[in-house]
Amino acid sequence: MSEGADSEIVDLLVIGAGPTGMACAIEAQRAGFTTMLVDKGCLCNSLFHYPAHMTFFTTPELLEIGDMPFSSPNQKPNRSEALEYYRKVAEFYRLDVRQYENVERVDGGDGNFTVHTMDRFGRAVQHPARKLVIATGYYDLPNYLGIPGEDLSKVKHYYHEPHPYYGLEVLVIGGKNSAAIAALDLWRHGAKVTLVHRGKEIQKSVKYWILPDINNRIKNHEIEAYFDSVVTNITEDDVTLATRRGKVTIANQFVFALTGYHPDFEFIERLGVKLDKSNDRCPVCNPATLESNVPGIYAAGVIVAGERTSEIFIENGRFHGKLIAEDLRRKGVAT
Asked: Angle at Cα 107 formed by Cα 105 and Cα 108, nearest 5°?
């Protein structure tokens, strides 16, 4: 083997070390196969980049993987608790997680893949594997607006915490959970918040304890809102909106474009996996096993739903690992 390459082939290499990817590795290990996870960020990278004080909509037991209990004093756990839980799961199962390695390409085929990665210092690494799982999620790729000024440093596509924006003019773009939560958090910590949404109102699907809060803040003009409106231009000092009342330009110092995210379809296609263009770009795979049209490559987690990113979460994606492990067992992958 060349320098920077693993000498032993693993039965299953999982691309993506989030909860779904971890569940896939755990189930494969429990079935007797050797595994490795590779992620371009840290363990549960997407969860790490959620807002610092985010609370999950679901209950702890629905976030559990590997039959390990998630104990929490709260009915709905927060981000910090979830990260601690998944660290403990990784430790318990002794998962081989290669963090901060970006997958550049994959060579070979079923039974003899080579995954080429690049570490954060630009060094090339090779990992041989018999089977692959793509569990890359979607949170790393925001849906861009495609408007002038979107590349300015003041425009953010992720929201973390409110303190840096105290006393400043902040625009939040979006009408779903992430936009509503960010707008409320910013307002409560002293930012001057304006919200812009192309829909007629905040979406009804927003968490039931958030929806009346954001609507009341808008009704009381504590948060200014422009509905049926879109942002058309961003400059260093202002933003321009196309509204029902015509063009409006308002002072602005930061923009949070929280307009959603999408899977890395280009990466998936580079692996040879076909996307069903007539079915929201869902990867072509066997629903019973999740093996794709490329023998030996499986899909897991939110990417299975293609552009319908609101269909699969940790709560249901965590079961994909069992389907894949059962297929590996049926095929008798050598260890």
From this structure: 160
